[in-house]
Design a protein that fits this description.
Length: 188
């Protein structure tokens, strides 16, 4: 695990105990600032919240001024397209029941909008991050992904923490894609 990743995770955890911060960071915010800004918390427990239901994720994202819509369903998966002030991404729920609920996991995916690093550089990046994973799709474009298992007992706060970790992945991968050579040279 790189010290950058460890610092981002620690900052995300500490931020969850802080007072609610601004909704989404501006596009030019540094990774440290992105990771320390928490998504809004709810004041009271939400009995209707079910992290395994994509509709609950839509609600959590809406509370952070992000727009999420169901983009499609296939077999046991539900796909959301998410638009934020800083970066669009896909949330894929997997292992869902026939109604598209009671999903077992969610994976967040963002395609880099710049030239793709080489496959060798992406492999090196993966060795520096414990939680964020990069890959190159069939078209040669770089993606960063983050996934988590979903449980019946998951709370809105836990899902918010997962979104904060995802935002840290986005910021870290953006730094990597902007200058893979410099990023990898400074990685432990």
């Amino acid at each position: 695990m790189s010290f950058k990743t460890l610092a981002l995770v620690a900052a995300a955890i500490l931020a969850m105990g802080a007072a609610p911060a601004p909704k989404f960071a501006p596009a030019k915010t540094t990774p440290a600032k992105v990771a320390t800004r928490a998504l809004p918390k709810t004041a009271t427990p939400d009995a209707a919240f079910d992290a395994r239901d994509p509709a609950s994720m839509v609600a959590v994202l809406a509370s952070a001024d992000a727009k999420a819509v169901v983009a499609g369903k296939e077999a046991d998966s539900v796909f959301l397209t998410v638009t934020t002030n800083t970066v669009p991404f896909i949330a894929q729920f997997a292992g869902c029941d026939p109604q598209g609920r009671k999903c077992q996991a969610v994976q967040f995916d963002n395609m880099a909008d710049k030239a793709s690093p080489t496959l060798s550089q992406i492999n090196a990046y993966n060795q520096t991050s414990a939680m964020c994973r990069g890959f190159q799709d069939k078209g040669g474009k770089a993606h960063v992904v983050y996934s988590t298992l979903l449980f019946n007992a998951d709370t809105r706060e836990r899902i918010t923490q997962q979104l904060v970790a995802w935002r840290g992945c986005l910021a870290e991968f953006r730094d990597f894609v902007n200058d893979p050579t410099a990023y990898l040279a400074s990685a432990p």
